[in-house]
Amino acid sequence: MDLRNVAIIAHVDHGKTTLVDELLKQSGAFRENQQVAERAMDSNDLERERGITILAKATSVEWKSTRINIVDTPGHADFGGEVERILSMVDGVVLLVDAAEGPMPQTKFVTSKALALGLRPIVVLNKVDKPDAEPDRALDECFDLFANLGADDDQLDFPHMYASGRAGWADFELDGPRKDLTALFKLIVDHVPAPKQVKHEEDDFRMLATTLSADPFLGRILTGRVESGRLKVGATLQALSRVGQKIEQFRVSRIQAFRGLSYQDIEEARAGDIVTLAGMQKATVADTLCALAVDEPLEALPIDPPTITVTFGINDSPLAGRDGKKVQSRVIRDRLMKEAESNIAIKVKDTPGGEAFEVSGRGELQMGVLIENMRREGFELSIARPQVIMRDGETGREEPVEEVTIDVDDDYSGAVIEKITGVRKGELVEMKPSGTGKTRIVAHVPARGLIGYQGEFLTDTRGTGVMNRVFQGWTPYKGAIEGRRAGVLISMESGDAVAYALWNLEERGKMFIGPQEKVYEGMVIGEHSRENDLEVNPLKGKKLTNVRASGSDDAVRLTPPTVLTLEEAIAYINDDELVEVTPNAIRLRKRYLDPHERKRMARAQ
Q1: Buried-state track 134-164, b at ≥16 Cβ within 10 A, e below 16
Q2: Is 117 in the same domain as 233?
Q3: Domain that holds residue 453
């Protein structure tokens, strides 16, 4: 059977997981009466809730005697570590672009990685049946994007199609028959080359591990593409590190390949196949699994460095241990080390006291997803404000800068530009109309300036603005950037909040808690309307007498509290505050810095 390995690249919410659903259905991967969930590739609970792809996943379909292995890649740059590894397993890419929005920042990020590997793209203009679709403009923007990213002549001569993933059709012409995805299947088979590894079937077995997972029955499982040779169950292999050091020798207990959405046992893996192997105990991502006669490891692609660091600590608040079961620092450390092993874009380092851990990653979303997964597993944590990682470059001290693409109503563009170029010290790169009454703004902004900006941005644009960001590079340090201006309201008592007290405090600012919520001394319960912090008493009840008076017995009408999501809470806090995360609650509280920590914060600023 012929073989094709292809990855699908798209920005968040441009419809790639929906398109993969249709490819699976029309290839006959499901029975006619089989019940299949919508967005079947989004197997993770968080992926379904947020509508984004977080983990790269592979599937396999058969079309006219050709097996097509399809890899669904994450659309957000924070999960770029997944993308960089996965692209080494494929021989072509399908770039899916929303016909209304055109190529977006995350598309640019992943496409640059694919073009650098020499992969030839296929462009599919999706959602052309939307009323605001402009497929011709989107196609021109794709060509300009490829040219700017240094594509060669073969890559610039890319085929393109018009499609609607939800409706399940793709055609070469905009006014085509709009029946099914047959044309897309045929284009993948004709345009994407067969794996060149097939020529090396008789060589010694070699495979680069690209993803790591665990099974309660099989133990450690590594997935990758077979670069050369053949492998049968029961064979003995060795694992080599990036530098050629022998890690372990093991017997292959099981070989599995993707068939539809599930794994199936196979007896033999051949060059070019994407398979998972079980039986190893120490081997991990970026290691080479090979025959005993091989002494040179396969080259592993370099991974972009982390740009932010977040301190994870134990929850030491007065309410600690009431919700979660996993509260000890050693248990938190083991979980973080396990995450760092499977996700090579994350680095974990112990702090001097041993009670907290510095976790470095690509962005706030990646950190938020990790914390959310941990709280659902029963962990209790305290999270500090994210800090940007600086480096010493040719021009001295350098900091990461991100390319920000903003689509906003014309009425609010002035306020946005003022914030990102003035207060946040960004540089305006491009500003152009992007549809009826909309403006697209592209700017390069220091990563420090974007921490905590999302909430302010939504306020400035009355909730109508859309902001996308991607790592751009490094720039000379731009000096101090002003943080949150408003102070906070801090509880001076411990107990259950009283509605009457919160009603009287509303004139001081907006509240983060409602009546009957548990509070403690030092807990942040709201945002002050002025710049200074203010200690207040949310437990103060009404003085009761046996005399009724007109006007003094008014009903208490509370404004609904502002409930911060996990990412909003992490971005909101200042350096002297923490986010307390438990399975059932997200709270903010003050912390008191020791002199060593105060000096470190000063250096970071």
Answers
A1: bbeebbebbeebbeeeebeeebeebebbbbb
A2: no
A3: 391-476
What is the gyration radius of the CA atoms in the chain, in angstroms? 27
In a domain, 585, yes or no: no
Instruction: Quote the Cα angle for 118-124-127, to 5°.
Output: 150
Task: Tally the domains of the chain.
Answer: 4
DSSP 95-117: EEEETTT-S-HHHHHHHHHHHHT
Answer whether residue 50 is part of any domain: yes
Are the CB atoms for 298 and 288 separated by under 8 Å? yes
In a domain, residue 35? The reply is: yes
Sole residue written with tokens 């608040």: 317
333-361: pLDDT as tens digits: 999 988 887 777 788 988 877 788 999 98
Run of H or E including 603:
helix 595-604
Do residue 53 and residue 202 come from a single domain?
no
Helix (H) or strand (E) holding 10, with range, is strand 2-10
Tokens matching residue 251: 């017997």
Which helix (H) or strand (E) segment holds residue 50: the answer is helix 45-50
84 and 24, same structural domain?
A: yes
Asked if 168 contacts 19 with a C-beta cutoff of 8 angstroms, the reply is no
Run of H or E including 406? strand 396-409
pLDDT digits (tens, 9 = 90+) for 69-126: 888 777 555 565 566 667 878 888 888 888 888 887 667 777 887 888 888 899 999 8
Give the number of residues written for the chain: 605
Buried b or exposed e, range 59-87, using 16+ CB within 10 angstroms: bbbebeebbbbbbbbbbbbbbbbbbbbbb
Going from the C-alpha of 432 to that of each of 7, 115, 419, 435, 467, the distances in angstroms are 32, 27, 18, 10, 15
List, for the chain, all residue ranges whose pLDDT scores fall below the cut of 70: 1, 12-14, 28-57, 75-85, 105-106, 197-199, 260-261, 302-304, 435, 548-554, 592-605
Q: Do the beta carbons of residue 247 and residue 240 sit within 8 Å?
A: yes
- Pair 340, 370: CB distance under 8 Å: no
Q: What is the DSSP letter of 283?
A: -
Is the distance from CB of 53 to CB of 47 less than 8 angstroms? yes
Q: Distance between CA 109 and CA 299 in Å, rounded?
A: 22
**All residues at 6 or more sequence positions from 97 whose CB lies less than 8 Å from its CB, including other chains:** 10, 11, 14, 103, 107, 123, 124, 125, 126, 138, 142
Pair 460, 423: CB distance under 8 Å: no
275 and 174 together in one domain: no
- Cα dihedral across residues 443, 16, 96, 148: positive or negative: positive
Domain's final residue, options 265, 290, 315: 290
185 with 46, same domain?
yes
Question: At a CB cut-off of 8 Å and minimum separation 6, what does 579 contact?
Answer: 382, 383, 566, 569, 570, 573, 586, 587, 588
pTM, full prediction? 0.74
Res 603: pLDDT: 57
d(CA 4, CA 189): 7
Nearest Cα neighbor of 313 from 78, 603, 605, 593 is 593
Tell whether 203 and 185 lie within a shared domain: no
Q: Return the number of other C-beta atoms located less than 10 Å from residue 344's C-beta.
A: 18
The CATH number of residue 147's host domain is 3.40.50.300
